[in-house]
From TrEMBL:
Swiss-Prot/TrEMBL keywords: Heme, Iron, Metal-binding, Transport
Name of the protein in its database record: Group II truncated hemoglobin
Family of the protein in this entry: Belongs to the truncated hemoglobin family. Group II subfamily.
Region ranges (Disordered): 130-151
Length: 151
């Protein structure tokens, strides 16, 4: 079946994801709802998010190999106490970033936003637990295609 290829390729690989991550963080840091949540932001985040998304969307497993894998990602969100309004705003700003970086690609947009809807719910849930919580083994980093989560 022709499934249109990986989302990673559709976005333009790691460079495309860097552009997406850059555009997103520019918006976050200028946003009065989210900027305070990202008070510990450093420029490394842009690259780390691009690497994470690359692995999720079918690119190389670089987050697993060099950045602590699924568990490290979950741990980054511990203690943030993300509220509904934060998550809603996160999704709005990511939607704007997708529109800027990938204009005129509604099918890819829908697939990305479906992942972000799913992933932000997990981030919000984990963020209610205090820093240092033992998360156990969360398993490998999830993979997401145009058909959704790979089971
Ligand atoms: C699909 C959803 C999400 C993904 C893929 C994601 C990805 C990431 C990644 C890769 C990092 C680590 C950055 C680094 O180590 O440099 C990170 C950290 C962070 N994320 Fe998320 N995130 C998501 C949802 C959210 C949401 C909904 C919020 C809040 C509204 C949020 C707030 C933060 C903050 C504040 C940090 C920095 C924590 C620190 O200082 O280490 N994230 N996120």
């Amino acid at each position: 079946m022709d499934d249109g290829g990986s989302l990673y390729d559709a976005i333009g690989g790691t460079d495309g994801l860097r552009r997406l991550s850059d555009s997103f963080y520019e918006r976050v840091l200028a946003d009065e709802v989210l900027a305070p949540v990202f008070a510990t932001f450093t420029p490394d985040h842009v690259e780390h998010v691009a690497i994470w998304l690359g692995e999720v969307f079918g690119g190389p497993a670089r987050f697993t190999e060099a950045h602590g894998g699924h568990q490290a990602l979950l741990r980054s969100h511990l203690g943030l106490r993300i509220r509904d309004e934060h998550r809603t705003r996160w999704l709005e700003l990511m939607g704007e970033a997708v529109d800027e970086v990938l204009p005129g690609q509604p099918v890819v947009r829908d697939a990305l936003m479906a992942y972000f809807g799913w992933g932000t719910a997990i981030a919000q849930q984990v963020s209610q637990e205090p820093v240092g919580t033992d998360l156990g083994d969360p398993g490998p980093i999830p993979r997401w295609t145009r058909q959704g989560l790979v089971k």
